[in-house]
Write a structure and sequence with these properties.
Elements: H1 5-26, H2 30-34, H3 47-67, H4 76-99, H5 103-127, H6 129-134, H7 136-155
């Protein structure tokens, strides 16, 4: 596919809108969340939307690099499908955690997300190493989120 601004903006918009929809669906639950006992190293609440916006932008850039990679790579369709699956798994976590308050289930869902991200990183790496590296902060943040999620389960 020819690299174009329209394609780039679409690739950015998909994860950003997915994250925005999740945030919209859980916005009323944040007041309850602030009342929970937090584990050590819990960042201030204002940090979460900033970090997630950056991570969603990095995901979009990575997906653009994969989408516009030379088509002779047969892994591209599989990589993009897996990217979509991990994005859907990501979008559901806030509903389970914030809206439904299924803290233990949410932790195991994060483990599924972590695994999906790891496999996506490996597959992206076969196609475009730069795209793979763009997802590393996402994996690190989800690892940290897993710690926070489990800590909230244990403390509440």
């Amino acid at each position: 596919m020819k690299k174009s601004l329209k394609t780039f903006l679409l690739c950015l918009a998909i994860p950003l809108l997915t994250g925005g929809l999740s945030a919209f669906l859980t916005c009323g639950a944040m007041a309850d969340f602030r009342q929970l006992n937090q584990p050590p190293l819990s960042p201030p609440g204002i940090l979460f939307p900033v970090v997630w916006s950056i991570l969603y932008a990095l995901m979009g850039i990575a997906s653009y690099l994969i989408l516009t990679a030379p088509k002779e790579n047969s892994d591209i369709p599989t990589a993009l499908k897996l990217y979509g699956i991990q994005l859907a798994v990501n979008a559901l976590w806030p509903l389970f955690f914030f809206r439904l308050k299924w803290y233990l289930f949410s932790f195991f869902w994060l483990l599924l997300l972590w695994l999906a991200i790891l496999v996506t990183i490996r597959l992206f790496g076969r196609i475009c190493p730069a795209a793979s590296r763009l997802l590393l902060p996402y994996l690190i943040w989800v690892t940290f989120a897993g710690y926070l999620n489990l800590g909230i389960y244990w403390l509440n």
